[in-house]
Amino acid sequence: MNLRVSRLFASILAATGLALSFACASATAANPGAAVEQPLRFQAYDNPKFPTFAFGMEKHGTVVGYYYNANYNALGFLRTADGGYTDVVYPKTPTSTFAQAINNAGNVAGYGQIAGVNGAYGWFYDAASKAFTAIEVPHAQATDVWGLNNQNVVAGAAYFYTDSTGRGVGFTWTNGTFKYYKIPDAQFTQIYAINDNGDVAGSYIETSGASHDFIWKADGTVSILDPVNEFNNMAGVAGLNKNGDFVGPCYDQDFNTMGCFYKRSTAKVTSFKLDGFSSTMPSGMSHGDIVGYGIDATSGIAQAFVIPKSSVLGK
């Protein structure tokens, strides 16, 4: 059994299948009187049949993510601000490349999978040399890569299927050196995001199955966070900024997926969703924008989005 645990929104995706999608209209924030801006929305190569998932953006507006092509192969992509596309294909896993993060140098990080093999293979792509570097935690059966900062520090989680329950630890990787993160007594510790301070954020799962979010600062300070939105549902971590704010998925009162923005200085959660869609799943934020994807209630095809943070916060 594959007991690898992924992000909250990834498990939502798995539950709904590959034929997901998202085509967004306007954003509805918790402040109904706020001015709302139209988000950028797109599908890879402007093909309405390609389910497309966005995870990060660099300072010039290039968005990174992955899509499923007509053969249901997962391919990473870069989309420039003017709408140009480039595939990102990890040579070790040519039919399943999941590009998850990009920094301002244009370097990219993610993971790949081999069909029929229970495992994941992390990688880092250097834009200047156009070369991939494998990131595989020693002795782990799977290495997932989800985060990357402007110092080229990569973050993710590794999984060890030593028994029927499995075990996982968070990690960062810098120039070939791993640093590991484990919340005491946790069955899984997973890191989803890293900021330019070197702080990491993620979640951990107790042996009982209970899940909690955390921020682990570069100075070693750990804060366990279980922030909830106005519907008393927990806000998940997906993207982290230098202020310690994070964005991620959460639920409304009917357990429909929506976005939540957690502001660290006030401990306030602002929830939001895109009108006309059953799910809104933010996956990262950078340069004043929130990046993500969602599910169109009518078409069922996933579409990526970029929306100004000001639309969510109402200012």
Give a written overview of the molecule:
- The chain is mainly beta and 315 residues long.
- The chain has a single domain, classed as 6 Propeller (Neuraminidase).
- Helices cover 4% and strands 48% of the residues.
- It contains 2 helices and 25 strands.
- The chain has helices spanning 8-16, 309-313; strands at 27-29, 40-42, 52-57, 63-68, 74-79, 85-88, 97-102, 108-112, 121-126, 131-135, 142-148, 154-160, 167-174, 177-181, 186-194, 200-206, 211-216, 222-225, 239-240, 246-251, 257-263, 268-274, 277-286, 289-296, 302-308.
- It has a 5-stranded antiparallel sheet with strand order 1-22-21-20-19. The chain has a 4-stranded antiparallel sheet with strand order 2-25-24-23.
- It is globular.
Task: Explain the layout of strands and helices.
Layout: H1 8-16, E1 27-29, E2 40-42, E3 52-57, E4 63-68, E5 74-79, E6 85-88, E7 97-102, E8 108-112, E9 121-126, E10 131-135, E11 142-148, E12 154-160, E13 167-174, E14 177-181, E15 186-194, E16 200-206, E17 211-216, E18 222-225, E19 239-240, E20 246-251, E21 257-263, E22 268-274, E23 277-286, E24 289-296, E25 302-308, H2 309-313
Organism: Ideonella azotifigens
Protein name: WG repeat-containing protein
Signal peptide: 1-29
Low-confidence stretches: 1-36
What is the element string, with H for helices and E for strands?
Answer: HEEEEEEEEEEEEEEEEEEEEEEEEEH
Please name the CATH architecture. Answer: 6 Propeller
Radius of gyration, in angstroms, nearest whole number: 18 Å
Identify the quaternary structure here: single chain
